Amino acid sequence: MEQDLTKFNPVIGLEIHVQLKTKSKMFCACANNPDESVPNTNICEVCTGQPGSLPVVNKEAVRLGTMFGLALNCKINKDAKFDRKSYFYPDLPKGYQISQYDKPIAERGYLDIEVDGEIRRIRITRAHLEEDAGKNIHPDGLNYSLVDYNRGGTPLLEIVTEPDITSAKEARIFLQELRNIVRYVGVGTADMEKGTMRCEPSISVRKPGQQELPPYKVEVKNINSFSFAESAIEYEIARQTKILEEGGTPKQVTMGWNEKAGVTVEQRSKEQANDYRYFPDPDIPVLNLSDEYIDLLKAQVPELPAQKRKRFKNEYALPEADINNLINWKELTEYYEQLVSEIQEWLKTDQAASKDLDLQKLMKLGANWCLQDFSALLNAAHIDPLESKVRPENLAELLKLIEAGKISNSAAKQVFAKMFETGGEPHNIVEDLGLAQVSDTAVIETVIEAVLSANEKAVTDYKAGQQKSFGFLVGMAMKELKGKGNPAVVNEILKQKLQK
Ligand SMILES: [Zn+2]
Known about the structure:
Blueprint: E1 9-19, H1 59-71, E2 75-76, E3 83-86, E4 96-99, E5 106-115, E6 118-131, E7 135-137, E8 146-148, E9 155-161, H2 168-185, E10 197-206, E11 218-221, H3 226-245, E12 254-258, E13 263-266, E14 279-280, H4 291-300, H5 305-316, H6 320-327, H7 330-349, H8 359-381, H9 392-403, H10 409-422, H11 426-433, H12 441-454, H13 456-463, H14 468-480, H15 487-499
Parallel strand pairs: 11-12
Antiparallel strand pairs: 1-9, 1-10, 2-5, 3-4, 3-14, 5-6, 6-9, 7-8, 10-11, 12-13
């Protein structure tokens, strides 16, 4: 579906649920463990809604919600309170969800993101704390359903944006930046694939210049990756544009995203509009946060992705793509900073050995290794950089060996794989595997002289102008050197000899 953007402009808002990384649930002492696989293990009378049970607010969830609100430039409501949101569904045994209605923990903030070199400010309407529902399970071939309450009562932060987003790409960038902030602040794991971060975009389109919001919006549910979010929004923009172009009016509906077919599908509409009948939960007192508490947390908000991006640009002068890729993995940025400080330390203390090495080049090389070979191995092993056996000082040493021409690139890959496996030091591995690159000109000269006298025809051909004979002679010399000759030195000496 092609869309003509001169005719209609997209209006997009996002609703994001983030599962908080607390030890216990929102209102009881049950474990908050998203990986629990045995149904109904982490449950008690509170999170299964037994009569007479009393909820107690999880302080850590309040702290995380407040920190996150501060990171999103929100106003923190000192008198934040909890309300009952009534609806009936088997995964919600109380018949209501404890949420926050008119006094959320945080409201009226913003997040600045960069889209195609331009800063876009997306306003945050609110961020509120609530409890999650359980999970209904519909086993194949059975005519009844089951409910697992392990997830029931786990703490969530729901973040709602104003409809300030104007394209699918902008929505994707916003979601990625929000995910980064969740991880940087330490609020949660924000893993869309595992459901610890979920998003529901609302999409409508309007004529350029039109100020008021369209009279309808389409919500899309069941999205579990950033690229699906982008695709679903693109699809909706095109679908609604087509309806408007044909003179129709899009309906206000809830859609699901069918990732296989790449289309949005209308979900069964509820029989009537929801009437949640919110009212203050009489069992939970108003939070009454003090100024001191909020100031204390404000001081604890760590360096956020945007600040770190700026600093990496100034301190390490890496290409923008490298910086963005590093920033998307908080632990990798921490590892990279340790790596750089190892390199700097070494350049300072061993000036004789480092006189031909360039800090800037080593930092760029370090970023390449972090983002390529290292990331690939870490992802395959499902571990974080600082959990791996490759210590930053050892990777720094490997980079020096490469830069100084002591080992070839392909040998470096073998050495690194071994380092990842055993945690060994590069110089030992190079020796054990016999991978040291021969840069000794005397050795290389002897080999080349032998190659030249054994291949007189190739020499004559080269002198007669056949360039490919040069490559052949390099190949023969490398073969003699068992692939360990320094290619630059081999080329250089061969050229000299052939000129004679
Ligand atoms: Zn419980």
